[in-house]
């Protein structure tokens, strides 16, 4: 039996893995390969939290492969050079991988495919990450969509309820002399004497395919009912929390959709299911935008903001935002949840992003870069479009006058203060009435929470008015034609 290299990247699963299935269907013995080459994804090489997750995800994938008679061959260095070495070592007849859609990955993969095909190797890429390929969903004029609703109306019709292929029960053994690195050799986790800043992550997450499937089962059995409304409340488990598993490809969106559509839902629950599917649609839309407008990872989607005057960042204020010391409890709670768990509830993501881009009026890239390093679901498409949506600079963005009032958001979505008290425990003794804006209760704050900032790092009312003036002024007009 001949061999085929199966190049794993962010598709770290065995079920619904088209590259793996294609190698098996061709009658070839798959050689599962992971090549660690983060520099090839510059300027958005994976951050520290992503690396911490990747360490455990690779261990899980290798264990799953070994349970089926195979193993993961890990190499490090230039991807093309390592692939060429493996082709020579295994006499592989083919190379299969699942596509990535970030600009740097597309350029790298195109170069590798063209180079190896020119030498006679069979090279094939597959879709394992998206429900619809970005080039297949277009407007009536043949253009990419820039607005979510018509995009999703088009893409929604293409959803397939067919359950994708499961994981193979057995895999061929690899040549015994074929060597690779251990996961530990990649030094993805915090290294001594650096503190284990990721320790809190693993109280909340189980990286790997099994962990993803367990979360999907839990969601379908529980939080799916009531999802549309309950998903807005950060103090409860009301979302699927599948985003990091989707990012690393430990579960496919096709599997999620097929499981959702296969279930008989009561009519009263159908709005919840439709809304959940639309959230998967937003993920698709973000990848659609990044594919068609790759410059948006670094630049504003909306050219009207090309000359916008963002405030010059104050390192002290930026650090206060990053560490959850702004003096605004709902903002601080979100940032501390992120630091401790590697994840943040979507409602608070919007609140903290609005605070940075509207109240502080800092460029959205300062937030995108911090999220990139601290999120376990740091996905370039979602991260970019999420920040541009809140900043008002992207496609289908929030209008410039939408500035999230963090006090009102806390009062509406954390009325009992459970979320704030969990992540900002120094405020736990404050009464509910003082929890959303403690600076308005200075005596209580000084007495019951002396270690918390006595007032916000920026005046919420004055900064809102300044943002409205800046966003609505002539500085947002597009530059004159040359």
TrEMBL record:
PANTHER family: CRYPTOCHROME, CRYPTOCHROME CIRCADIAN CLOCK 5 ISOFORM X1
InterPro entries attached to this UniProt entry: Crypto/Photolyase_FAD-like_sf (IPR036134), Crypto/Photolyase_N_sf (IPR036155), Cryptochr/Photolyase_FAD-bd (IPR005101), Cryptochrome/DNA_photolyase_1 (IPR002081), DNA_photolyase_1_CS_C (IPR018394), DNA_photolyase_N (IPR006050), Rossmann-like_a/b/a_fold (IPR014729)
Enzyme class: lyase
One GO BP: response to light stimulus
Binding positions (FAD): 227, 239-243, 276, 377-379
Residue ranges of domain Photolyase/cryptochrome alpha/beta in the record: 2-131
Taxonomic placement: Bacteria, Pseudomonadati, Pseudomonadota, Gammaproteobacteria, Lysobacterales
Keywords recorded for this protein, A-Z: Chromophore, FAD, Flavoprotein
The name this protein goes by in its record: Deoxyribodipyrimidine photo-lyase
């Amino acid at each position: 039996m001949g061999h085929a290299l199966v190049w794993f990247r962010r598709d770290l699963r065995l079920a619904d893995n088209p590259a793996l299935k294609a190698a098996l269907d061709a009658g070839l013995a798959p050689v599962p390969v992971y090549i660690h080459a983060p520099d090839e994804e510059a300027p958005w090489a994976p951050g520290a939290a992503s690396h911490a997750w990747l360490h455990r995800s690779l261990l899980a994938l290798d264990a799953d492969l070994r349970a089926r008679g195979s193993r993961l061959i890990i190499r490090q260095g230039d991807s093309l050079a390592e692939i060429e070495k493996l082709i020579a070592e295994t006499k592989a007849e083919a190379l299969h991988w699942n596509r990535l859609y970030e600009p740097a990955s597309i350029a790298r993969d195109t170069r590798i495919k063209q180079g190896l095909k020119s030498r006679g190797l069979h090279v094939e890429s597959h879709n394992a990450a998206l429900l619809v390929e970005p080039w297949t969903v277009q407007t009536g004029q043949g253009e990419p969509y820039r607005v979510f609703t018509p995009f999703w109306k088009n893409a929604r019709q293409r959803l397939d309820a067919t359950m994708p292929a499961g994981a193979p029960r057995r895999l061929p053994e690899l040549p015994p002399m074929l060597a690779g690195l251990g996961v530990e050799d990649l030094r993805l986790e915090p290294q001594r004497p650096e503190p284990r800043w990721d320790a809190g992550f693993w109280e909340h997450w189980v990286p790997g395919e099994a962990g993803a499937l367990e979360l999907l089962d839990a969601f379908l059995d529980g939080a799916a009912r009531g999802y549309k409304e309950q998903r807005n409340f950060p103090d409860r488990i009301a979302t699927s929390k599948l985003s990091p598993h989707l990012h690393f490809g430990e579960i496919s969106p096709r599997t999620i959709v097929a499981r959702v559509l296969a279930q008989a839902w009561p009519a009263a629950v159908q709005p919840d299911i439709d809304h959940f599917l639309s959230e998967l649609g937003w993920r698709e839309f973000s990848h659609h935008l990044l594919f068609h407008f790759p410059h948006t990872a670094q630049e504003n989607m909306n050219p009207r903001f090309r000359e916008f005057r963002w405030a010059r960042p104050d390192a002290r204020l930026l650090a206060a935002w990053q560490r959850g010391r702004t003096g605004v409890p709902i903002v601080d709670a979100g940032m501390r949840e992120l630091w401790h768990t590697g994840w943040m509830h979507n409602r608070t993501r919007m609140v903290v992003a609005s605070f940075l881009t509207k109240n502080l009026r800092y460029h959205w890239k300062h937030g995108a870069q911090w999220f990139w390093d601290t999120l376990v679901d740091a996905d370039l498409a979602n991260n970019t479009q999420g920040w541009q949506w809140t900043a008002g600079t992207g496609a289908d963005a929030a209008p410039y006058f939408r500035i999230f009032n963090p006090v009102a958001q806390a009062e509406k979505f954390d009325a009992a203060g459970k979320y704030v008290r969990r992540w900002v425990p120094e405020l736990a003794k404050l009464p509910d009435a003082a929890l959303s804006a403690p600076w308005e209760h200075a005596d209580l704050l000084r007495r019951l929470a002396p270690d918390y900032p006595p007032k916000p790092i920026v005046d919420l009312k004055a900064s809102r008015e300044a943002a409205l003036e800046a966003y609505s002024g002539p500085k947002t007009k597009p530059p004159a034609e040359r």
